[in-house]
Amino acid sequence: MKKQILGAVSGLAIVASSAAFAEPQAEVLHYWTSGGEAKSVAVLQEEFAANGGTWTDMPVAGGGGDAAGTALRARVLAGNAPTAAQIKGPAIQEWYQEGVLADISAVAEANNWAEVLPASIAGHMQCDGTWCAAPVNVHRVDWIWANAEVLSANGIEMPTTWDEFNAAAGKLQAAGIIPLAHGGQSWQDATVFEAVALGILGADGFQKAFVELDTETLTSDEMKAVFDQMRIMRGFVDSNFSGRDWNLATAMVMNGEAAFQIMGDWAKGEFMAAGQVPGEDFLCASTPGEGFLYNVDSFAMFAIDGEEKQQGQALLAELVVGQNFQKVFNLNKGSIPARTDVSLDAFDNCAILSAKDMAASSEGGSLLPSYAHGMALRGAQSGAITDVVTAHFNSDMSSDDAVQMLANAIANSL
Amino acid sequence: MTKWLEENTPKLVLAPSFVAVLIFVYGFIAWTAWVSLTRSRLLPKYEIDGFIQYDRLFASPRWDTAFGNLFVFGFLFIVIAMVLGLILAILLDQNIRTEGAIRTIYLYPMALSMIVTGTAWKWILNPGLGLEATVRGWGFETFTFDWLVNPDMAIYTIVIAAIWQSSGFVMALFLAGLRSVDQEIIKAAQVDGIPTWRVYTAIIIPSMAPIFLSAFIVLSHLAIKSFDLVIALTGGGPGYATDLPATYMYAMAFSRGDIGQAASSAMIMMMVVFAIIVPYLYSELRSKDD
Fold first, then answer.
1. Using the beta-carbon criterion (under 8 Å), do B257 and A412 form an inter-chain contact?
2. How far apart are CA B153 and CA B147, in angstroms?
């Protein structure tokens, strides 16, 4: 009897103390460590603190998130998962299958996420029908950037078909300008490849090839045409492109050494940082063809113990998708808000175009995940495709061999 | 008591490191072997599923490239570094006055990390920045040296940088070996009027056999575990033309969430090391028994 009372009293004491100190806590693992990104994430920290929470920052730099992924794995295996971690695409569902993600449906439903997010992006945030992640932004991948002065000096319009692009590039080459600024790193090869693939295969073909991994589409004549176009593009790149970083390629467009670059909208940040004005100094357009390839950063929410941490998780999820954060963060980062009801007054023309296209393609069913940036497939599968793309681009492999290799690689990727 | 301590102190002192090695080396080798037989993806799983990861590995063209590169790189690197090291050592051994300074200069690349070496050579070999641009700037407009960006030749740039880094170290090893050869024999040979080159080929070099073996073992394990040099110099590119097994393993484990595949490639790497080390250990142990 005495023991029971004692137990009850101590239990009460714990409840009382936790109520007294119930402060939402969140430990967030992310890899936004470069200048603009760090500034963006600081916005979230401030907002979190303003709502009475304690934020424990766990930035892990390096390797485009590889290092952060390793740190996350170690933490989860040790049974000490962070509140939230920056994970994107199908990796969210992979983590869910390991049974370590939390259910944040309560927050999502209270804040009406299903209404404000485009359906295909909302799909990435759900695991077996429950919400398990919160989207931060939408990067568009299928952009083509151009130096306005170089184009007008050579009498060239922004291309709307790949044939136009080839014609324009040939003209530029004759004028002694590098037509396409490109860095020979496998992910950049893959970025160009998927933009070409979207243009030639169309939205349905892209979906079949790079989301459903349909063998027939992967070995079709259209896919051969994609590789043919890649071979043509190889001729538009300068001979010194191997291993060049993407931002150096962007700089080549900026200073007029090269005319075009095909790259996601993080390239816009480089132009803006150099004080260039969209529409005047540099031009942005979607790559030839219909559709919109997105690369969405998100926070996956991990199952954690302790009321304070769970409160922190809910608060974090609410703030991340909140209007204010979506606006401020994306203004800093160069992407666009994931939710469609944020006012775009403060955004630049390229971002407004991006948001408009996203809404239109969401309705038209051509809002598609970027395979090159890990949104469409598991790492092993997208990696297998990228291996083929980069091997083809950096050798004289024929398109027939390339599609055959592609089919084999997919079959071998488990 | 003191007698007991006397007898057992070495064992007691060695015990912790023995246990640590047992767990952290052999334990984890066993763990990797286990994982390589599973379908592990993002996180390790432990249900054994046969040799599927090895089937995938040997079906992968990228692994073929990486494994082939290991032999191209390993062979050229070991042979050239040893020959160059030996020549440098012999030249330094001619009682020249500034030997100390020259030895230090040749040994210094060893003090740099592979990342620094790789980055420096990346700039030197970059056709738009380095050697090619410089020579063209001198007026030789047709001079081409684009190995770094040529998928067929890029692996040789890794060989060049690795040799630059390591041949000084090999030289130091050989120099120590040259000095340890019994001077009486050499003097006897000189008295007999045997030419210097014969002294080297018939007396000094054969008596340095153990040094050759040590140099070979050190260089071959450097070659097999080469990773940072590739990352800094080419990043595995162009395409994946300069991938080595270590970079393949890293890509699978850390970028692609394909742990089973990474584990199987690590096991193959280990087998290559064993194929070199085991005969060495065997010969060492046997010669002790004699």
1. no
2. 5
